[in-house]
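To close the chapter, one final illustration. This time we ask the reader to focus less on the individual chains and more on the assembly as a whole: which components sit near each other, and how the overall shape emerges from the parts.
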Amino acid sequence: MSLLEVKAINTYYGDAHALFDVSLHVEQNEVVALLGRNGAGKSTTLKTIMGVMAPKSGTINFAGRMIENMPPYKISQLGLQLVPEERRIIGGLTVDENLTLAGLTAPNRWHNDRAYEMFPRLAERRNNRGRDLSGGEQQMLAIARALVREPQLILLDEPFEGLAPLIVQDLIGVCRQVASEGRTIIIVEQNVHAALGLAKRCYVLNNGHMVFDGTPDALRRDADFMHRHLGV
Amino acid sequence: MLRFGADRGLGRWLPEIASIIGLIVFPLLFPIIGGTFDMMDRILIWGLFGFGFDILFGFTGLLAFGQAAFYGIGGFTTAYLLINGYLTNALVALAGGTILASVFGVIIGLLSLRRSGIYFAMLTLAFGEMFYFLDLSPLRNITGGENGLSGVPAADLFFKIEVRTPEEMYWLIAVLFFVGFLLARRIIKSSFGAVLVAIRDNVDRVGVLGHDVQKYKLTAFVIAAAYGGLAGGLLGLFQGYMPPDAFYLETSGQLVVQTIMGGAGTLIGPTIGAGIWIYLRSALQQFDGIGSLWKMILGIVFVLIVTLFRKGICGGISQLWNRVTGSTVSRQTAVVPSAESLANETAMLPTAAIRNRSALTGSVILETKDVVKRYGGLTAVDSVSFQLIEGEIRALIGPNGAGKTTFFNMLAGTIPVTEGEIHFAGEHITHLGSTAVCQRGLAKSFQINQLFPSLSVRDNIRIPALARRYGKFNPSMLRDVEFDDDICRAVDDAIAAVQLTGRADVRAGELAYGEKRRLEIGLALATKPRVLLLDEPTAGMSPSERTETVQLLKRIAAGITIVIVEHDMDVVFGLADRVTVFFNGRKIAEDSPEAIQANPEVRAAYLGSPVKK
Amino acid sequence: MNWSLLWAQLFNGLTLGALLVLVAMGLTIIFGALGVINFAHGAFYMVGAYAAYIAYTATYSFVISIVAGAAVAMLLGLIIERGLIRYYYKRPHEDQILVTFGIGIIIVEAVRAFFGGIAKRVPVPTWGEGAVNLGFLYYPTYRIEVLGIVGAALVILYVVLYRTRIGLIVRAGIEDQLMVNILGINVTRTFLVVFGLGSMAAGFAGVVNSPIVTVNPEMGALVLVQSFVVIVIGGVGSFWGAVVGGLIAGEILSLTAMIEPAYSQVMLFAAMAVVLILRPQGLFGVQGRQ
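The assembled structure is written out below.
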């Protein structure tokens, strides 16, 4: 059985229809990319899975549980963790406090030191306030925050947005390491090549409709299709 | 001119006629259930106080907790003038009290309106208390401190009429109550009143549509202060004594409670609430043991009403009425424009010139020079220079975080510019702000609908039409806005332009999503802009709705310059003459849609291969 | 220049200020975390004082009275939050103000009905009687002790906020409630705790202040208004804003009473007006919710 099974969800912003019968599935230990231009509904999909938004119809099954009507904190406690776009680091808390906060309700939480091993940059800044970190450091902290909870499935929402290319390279390395440890990941990205480099399978959304489900190679082969739905 | 629903007959005056009848009948009926003239006088005084407060809170949405200040100022001024013989005519003294209360209304309003919402409520409460303390101590010699001012002489009116007893006072108060009601009704029905209600519904949108919101708020505040001052003066005349509790926080609180109980936004709600309060207080005294609990009982009733019947008694009655008579124009099915209706409505518009993309030779109408936007260390928009030719349709595209929306918002004046200049029709508009920018002819429509949900489509469109016709502040309070033919024409034209004619009287909150999007565009269109900024107009739409919107925009585009931010490439290619591409805060390409499609740098930006910066 | 009068007023200002800090602190953490401005906050202060009065007449122990006052205020806060306020989180701010205002009326009237309108006295505890020789001034013992008690309470509050799990959650929640939710924490449960803490702070202040003022049903009204002023001056949602704002307010009230008693309350509002003109967000204004 799939770790995550999303079936025909329809999500609305007020009465604006954002997702039209969107379905996808993720297996254990996979890295799956969810692509599309902005406004396509990628973030909306992740938010719906995480319970930040409730779908009007459709079902979401995670590790055998139906989660489409659960509040985010319950879903997080089940082992699904969103790393939101814009990172949303708690600026007034220190790096250390941010990590501690993240692990409070996780049964198998990491010790903060383990996070520092993985992200030495954060170790140097452990007593700095969240708002004093650079963009790249905040993104590392956001990912570390999720890892501290030892989640079964991580949802990465635009982790490379707004970051300089060098930092993006660093982060790709981090993501590769996390993936190689056998974690299951859904990554939403506008940077198509970076995402395809990490993923085993990919989906493409366009205007709230799912228009592709296949491998990165299959996608790359159809250049026309790529430009139509992802480019200009 | 065809006017949907306007009643030019006697029906318009129903509330005023009803109030006259009510005022005459009140002293006949009320004593039957144990009411006295003393109670009736007090109810009407509170009602008068409430007209102004309801205009401020019920209609403009500003919850103020310090109205007692103006009640006290007006009351003590009137009393002081009469007691010390500076004036003998009671009406003139009342006018004096009202004027002084209004002056303080300006001062306190200017200070309190520097903040909004919760802070505004806290500030008005604090300033109200400040006047209480002023009354009690420093100005003790004038106001009598804890003792108040006694010895207010019998009201001496014109023609040597003297009024003293509660029965005689009733008629004086009733006349002033009626005049106050008449005036309040005129204010509410005027164009000024229309803007106030829009402020209550969506204050930010009102500013972006070209109105000077602060001036409107301040004027409403002063009106409330004036009514308060008049009511206070009447209290002193009526009692022959001006008490310090006119300044109490309790007085401000009583006004709020009465207004909510009776129903805010109805003008007579406060009067009804006062009736309940005063009658209940006296009626409950009859019962031993309960007598002292009357205020607690009222408190419980108040909490119940706020929780369950937010619209108060009047709201409850009107809901019942709607259920009995069948609901109004609300839940009808959305009207999807058919081909014939489209053709008919297009025929009513000025002839739409066929767009000829290659023939754009107009002058530069909107231009930016090295515009920068920084947020702390982050540069969102980096030195963008941009020229918009009059009559063209320009699309702004780019991946997420590219800066196009930030740039767009700087053009509209909704966010400030860090560096650089923006010129519109030759004028420097860089730091003018959205209200001024809109007045000059640059209007924006939002990605997420920013409508006035409790107003009808017609009333929605009226708001920008008023700003276009009368400028950013128009304190015209005496003319009924529904009979302003210029405005009616402009509103009907704008409604037709976005194909909402059949739905003009439906409340905006009840429209279908596609209709709401059209109304959103209609609001910007009604400001009669030279340049229209559209932020993702097709957001959240189904494919068929998208196609319809593109057709609509093509029709609108005649005679207007358009800048559109979009992600849907079909829409971009269907509409745009030229496309400007943003990436990492910079403009990386600007060309025809076909050329942009083939541009390798643009492709790389979207798909993410390494790119030279 | 009457130095001993000046010193006395400076100390009075500190005492008064310390109590205002406590009350304003309760108000500001409720507002920062929940977004609700509690117009019944003054009523909790009053309830604390009355609970202390009952406890004192029963046990003659001031310490027990302090515990009783704080506990009753907190309990009342918890009941009201669960019973009514939590249905209002999604409603507009105006409605929240109105319902808390109404609750305030009910509480005050209920107390008046039960105890009558005549003021009660809670005497100064035996360990607070007399005066202390500070060298430059003889100052009432109890008032010095108030400084100590309130100081201790603030330290405890600081420790709770900055050194405990629940404090971490509250501080994070004030900034970004949704993110805390996403991180697996049930935020609405913490609302309960915050409301209880805030009410307890007000009740505690009411008890501690009761030997200095008279205990009557209206005693909370002025404190409510003054705590609003403190928040406007200090900045909403800010711990240090409440501290600095409260102390400034206390000193303004006290020192102007020395110069011109009739104007002392008015001066506080004038100071608020000045802050409003020059720095509308308050001295330590925090963005957070608004």
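Chain A has one domain: 4-229. The interface with chain C takes residues 50, 52, 71-73, 76-77, 81-82, 84, 88, 90-93, 97, 100-102, 104-106, 145, 149 of chain A (CB under 8 Å). With these observations in hand, you are ready for the problems at the end of the chapter.
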